[in-house]
Specification:
Distance between the termini of chain A: 20 Å
Largest interface: A-B, 19 and 24 residues
GO biological process, one term (chain A): proteasome-mediated ubiquitin-dependent protein catabolic process
Strand order of the largest sheet of chain B: 9-1-2-10-11
Shape of chain A: globular
Number of strands of chain A: 12
Number of helices of chain A: 4
InterPro entries (chain A): Ntn_hydrolases_N, Proteasome_beta_3, Proteasome_bsu_CS, Proteasome_sua/b, Proteasome_suB-type
Radius of gyration of chain B: 24 Å
Keywords (chain A): Cytoplasm, Nucleus, Proteasome
CATH class of chain A: Alpha Beta
CATH architecture of chain A: 4-Layer Sandwich
Radius of gyration of chain A: 16 Å
CATH topology of chain A: Glutamine Phosphoribosylpyrophosphate, subunit 1, domain 1
Strand content of chain A: 25-35%
Structural class of chain A: alpha+beta
Pfam families (chain A): Proteasome
Order of helices and strands of chain A: EEEEEEHHEEEEHHEE
Structural class of chain B: alpha+beta
CATH superfamily of chain A: Aminohydrolase, N-terminal nucleophile (Ntn) domain
Number of helices of chain B: 6
Number of domains of chain A: 1
Number of strands of chain B: 11
Subcellular location (chain A): Cytoplasm; Nucleus
Oligomer: heterodimer
Helix content of chain B: 25-40%
Shape of chain B: extended
């Protein structure tokens, strides 16, 4: 089992009409043993920017703390929030700094940029950015997630339909993965509000 | 060609003495062809490693006053991928004999054919040739979790319903903690008249039955303050 599969994780972000959704599973395990069923993988950077981190649990927490620190400094200096595109470049640079001793994480960044245009991207553990117009996935269940998203995704979905789609894609994919699941966490972000929901899933 | 000799397992084929043509196939000692390799042990190790990942799960069985309870989950996993949630791990050999599977399927089926169980009982058999008689067993990657619940709740004089509920709970707890166990918890009862399947519950639903989700306790609520 590789180091990326040590704790187990599943992350997905999808773009809708002037909104986006980001969802994760809630399991923290040590290889096959489940330790916690309320582990947080999605972190709010600011009201219109969310960061999901999959992979090794301790690296996700450390990386989250470092990025929040960098963003707070930026807020103090620039007196405004970071744009999602800028934040993605920041994450990419922070990861590449550790090119020969990387953080074992795969981030998923989702935010509303200028004119509330949704922005999503993912990167590998050394910062290679991958922008997408529809959806991005990460984690141990990523292959199943790709399949589920590819078949369930439609462009320009409203917030409610987007929530349904991303939840179904997440739950059906983690049901095929031993290392992720045990519930789900979904954030749906529109220009006016952020809705956080917990999904009831199979606990096996 | 080397062959493994299984003559010790079969009763002597001296019954068909006269009709040697018909009985030729019966008389021949059952055996497996061994592969023609230079390094037999290395080859064996590779073969076992190929089959092993398909085997992680949870099964359990125990003897109590009324008979024997046998229970298992139904997940098959290959590394991290769940290949099936509906594998039948309890094999109905005959109306009075059940076998559970924890490991390579073909190996289990071979042992089921050749076991020669005498009388009511519970036997644990593994691919290395071990065979133990006992009262309580749990096998598989989820077995430590199942043992915890089984050992603390076990009493010899339970009713059939209590024993079945104990078995169901043990399998459920194993599927919750072990990533490689899941699907449905099947519970069978073996009594003097043979076996009977008592239940096959989806473990996802069992969780919410044992730990129902209540309405969220509201700790603080934002109140609208009208500005006069």
């Amino acid at each position: 089992m590789s180091i990326f599969e040590y704790n187990g994780s599943a992350l997905v972000a999808m773009v809708g009409k002037n909104c986006f959704a980001i969802a994760s599973d809630r399991r923290l395990g040590v290889q096959l043993q489940t330790i916690a069923t309320d582990f947080q993988r999605i972190f709010k950077i600011h009201d219109k920017l969310f960061l999901g981190l999959s992979g090794l649990g301790s690296d996700t927490q450390t990386l989250h703390q470092r990025l929040v620190f960098r963003h707070k400094l930026y807020q103090l200096r620039e007196e405004r929030d970071m744009k999602p595109e800028t934040f993605a470049s920041l994450v990419s640079a922070v990861l590449y700094e550790k090119r020969f001793g990387p953080y074992f994480c795969q981030p998923v960044i989702a935010g509303l940029g200028d004119d509330d245009k949704p922005f999503i991207c993912t990167m590998d553990s050394i910062g290679a950015k991958e922008l997408a117009k529809d959806f991005v996935v990460a984690g141990t269940a990523s292959e199943s997630l790709y399949g589920a998203c590819e078949s369930m995704f439609k462009p320009d979905m409203e917030a409610d339909e987007l929530f349904e789609t991303i939840s179904q894609a997440l739950l059906s994919s983690v049901d095929r993965d031993c290392l992720s699941g045990w519930g789900g966490h979904v954030y749906v972000v529109t220009p006016t509000e952020v809705t956080e929901r917990t999904l009831k899933g199979r606990m096996d | 060609m080397k062959r493994i000799d299984f003559s010790g397992l079969e009763s002597p084929a001296s019954f068909c003495g006269a009709d040697s043509d018909l009985c030729e196939s019966f008389l021949r000692t059952p055996s497996f062809q061994l592969p023609d390799t230079l390094d037999f042990d290395g080859f064996q190790k590779e073969a076992i490693q190929m089959v092993k990942p398909i085997g992680v799960i949870t099964t359990l069985a125990f003897i109590f006053k009324e008979g024997v309870i046998v229970a298992a989950d139904s997940r098959a996993s290959m590394g991290g991928y769940i290949s099936s949630q509906s594998v039948k791990k309890i094999i109905e050999i005959n109306p009075h004999m059940l076998g559970t599977m924890a490991g390579g399927a073909a190996d289990c089926q071979f042992w089921h054919r050749n076991l020669g169980i005498k009388g009511p009982g519970l036997y644990y058999v593994d691919s290395e040739g071990g065979r133990l008689k006992g009262n309580r067993f749990s096998v598989g990657s989820g077995s430590p979790y199942a043992y915890g619940v089984l050992d603390s709740g076990y009493r010899y004089d339970m009713s059939i319903e209590e024993a079945a509920e104990l078995a169901r709970r043990s399998i459920y707890h194993a599927t919750f903690r072990d990533g490689a166990s899941g699907g449905t918890a099947s519970v069978y009862y073996v009594g003097p008249d043979g076996w009977k399947k008592l239940s096959g519950d989806d473990v996802g639903e069992l969780h919410y039955k044992y730990y129902p989700v209540g309405p969220a306790v509201v700790e603080q609520e934002m109140a609208e303050i009208s500005i006069a």
